[in-house]
Structure prediction request, 91 residues.
Amino acid sequence: MVLVAVLSLSACETAPPVQEMSDARQAIAVAKEAGAEEFAAFHLKAAEDYLASAEEALNKRAYSEARRDAKHAKMKALDALKASESSADDD
Prediction:
């Protein structure tokens, strides 16, 4: 029973974070479309840095690290999107 639990937990970390990487890339693209390069450059840069780190980790097969950084990239991209929308509303 314990062996099954350990194997199922470790299986989560042996698969590449395909969905998380895709989500991060899409969130960055949406933020850019909303003007994040102008209105939220700090958050956008952080998102892109996290995505680059995730890609490096993915290449090293460090899937847990890649997943974590991809999730951070998505969160920062969403922050950039919110800041961009807020700035656009102020204009």
